[in-house]
Amino acid sequence: MNFKPNFFNPFLIFVFLIFVDYLYPQEIDLVTYIDLVKNNNIDLKQEDKKAKIAREESKIAKSLVLPNASAESFYQRDFNKNFLFINDEFDGSTTAFRTNFNNTIDASVTVTQTIFDPTVFSAVKVAKLTEELHKLENENMSNKLVIEASKLYWKAVFIKESIKVLNENAKLAKEQVDQIKKIANKGVVSKLQLYQAEGLYKKTILVLNNTKNQHYNILNELKVLANISITENLFLTESLENFEINGISSMKDIVIGNQPEIKTLKKEIEISEKQINANKKFWYPKLNIVTGYNYNVQDNGLKFGNHENKLFFGQLRITFPIFSGGRNNAEIVKTKIEKEAVELHLKNKQQEFLKQLQNAQNSYNTTINNIAIRRETLRLNEKEIVVFKKQLRLGVVTPIEFKEVLFRLTQSKLDLLSDYLDLHIAQLQIKRILGTAI
After folding, report:
1. What is the mean pLDDT of the segment spanning 154-171?
2. CA–CA separation, 215 vs 190, rounded Å?
3. Residue pair 223/229 in contact by the 8 Å Cβ criterion
4. Given a cut of 90, is residue 418 above it in pLDDT?
5. What percent of the chain has pLDDT over 90?
6. Could you give the CA distance from residue 432 to residue 438 in angstroms, rounded to a whole number?
7. For residues 278 and 196, what is the distance between their CA atoms, to the nearest angstrom?
8. How far is Cα of residue 213 from the mean position of the Cα atoms in its chain?
9. With left for phi above 0 and alpha for psi between -120 and 50, is residue 139 left, alpha or beta?
10. What are phi and psi of 101, to 5 degrees?
11. What gap in Å lies between CA 281 and CA 199, rounded to an integer?
12. What b/e string do you get for 325-364 counting C-beta neighbours within 10 Å, with b at 16 or more?
């Protein structure tokens, strides 16, 4: 029997796609990733829905100052006959006059226009400010999310580059084992030294595997944050070593007014002030104009043109609030207290942001200095490992001594990567506080 492979087998296609995805992962830089977070993050989409709801509520409030028109019509069938009886004083006779008709049709149109109503006008202003508040809250969440996503991205890059360092460390440890095996056969080193070298190599593999697992987990966190499919294979293209020197020149010139959270609190205070003014105008009179047209026809049959009434009217309505049961005064006091609470929160946030900004700037400056020292230390460690590798081949140094040198080299590389990460995080912290992350 001749077997003919089915290249369109769904299982084979699925395996092929997985294989291609593994060989060719999606390369993604920081800017691209942040764009994905802004466009796809579920929390941001929910916040955007709130902003849209606020926009519609603003439209609802504005509709209160526009004319309100309504139309009404009805048909009535009277099954009873009502009469008005009149007695004649001269002959004593009684005359009956019918007072209703069998059929009635009534139609009316009414238009109401607000002329003066301070509470309505204030409600429109408050609704507009509330819409602006939701936009600021959206901006604040976007600012925080961009910083969170950027930090997570750089942490993932840190782990990725740590894996590279640990791979080199494992490679050097394996070379040490191979070299010791060669000289052990000549009796230069003992079996104990060989066992120590093999143990060191095994430990480097364990550390490497654990770090790879951390990288896998943090990539999944990145996918969730940007709403990327969890099965997508990502490759982060950024390098920790690439950074710009853009710290703050002088703390005296710092203005944190553009910080989204600060702007949000200021907008809440503005809304409270408008609400207090609106409540104070509760006792003002309200003036409305009402115009309408009414058409009414009646007949015992269907000849409605015989008995019709037409009425076009206009009204000027003035309303004076007299007593609210103390509700309005309580609302004024409540809003004032809420405003004072927000003002205190604003002062606290301003001080907190200034403190965080100063700490971030100090951390930034310290890390810049540390990086220069780390680079010089790494250069010396690399020279040291070259010398020890030669001495190890000659049997001059022991595996324990080589292990210490190898540890210093690996630790210097990881410390340098850690400083790079600290520098990126300090820059992000400064951007978050100044509101320039978006």
Report:
1. 94
2. 38
3. yes
4. yes
5. 40
6. 9
7. 81
8. 29
9. alpha
10. -115, 160
11. 83
12. eeebeebbeebeebbeebeeebeebeeebeeebeebbebb
Nearest CA to 107 out of 69, 73, 77 is that of 73
Q: How far apart are CA 231 and CA 220, in angstroms?
A: 9
* Residue 419 buriedness (CB in 10 A; 0-12 / 13-18 / 19+): buried
Beta partners for residue 283, in sequence order? none
The sign of the dihedral angle between the CA atoms of 162, 168, 172, 178 is positive
Euclidean distance between CA atoms 193 and 394, whole angstroms: 14
Q: Are 117 and 286 in contact (CB under 8 A)?
A: yes
Q: According to the model, what pLDDT value does residue 248 have?
A: 56
Q: What is the mean pLDDT of residues 135-144?
A: 89
- Name the amino acid, one letter, at 193: Q
For 108, residues 6+ apart whose C-beta sits below 8 A from its C-beta are 71, 72, 73, 292, 293, 294, 295
CA gap 338, 265 in Å, rounded: 12
Q: How many CB atoms lie within 10 A of CB 84?
A: 9
State which amino acid sits at residue 380: L
For the stretch 284-313, pLDDT in tens is: 899 999 999 999 888 877 776 677 888 998
pTM: 0.75
Quote the CA–CA distance of 359 and 429 in Å, as a whole number.
10
Contacts of 278 (CB under 8 A, 6+ apart): 118, 119, 122, 123, 125, 126
Q: What is the dihedral of CA 123, 124, 126, 132, to 10 degrees?
A: 160
Cα distance between residue 173 and residue 102, in whole Å: 109
Question: pLDDT class for 54, splitting at 50, 70, 90?
Answer: confident
Q: Which residues pair with 27 in a beta bridge?
A: 235
* Burial status of residue 2 (CB atoms within 10 A of its CB: 0-12, 13-18, 19 or more): exposed
Q: Is the pLDDT of residue 157 over 80?
A: yes
Amino acid making up residue 337: I
Classified as helix, coil or strand, 19 is helix
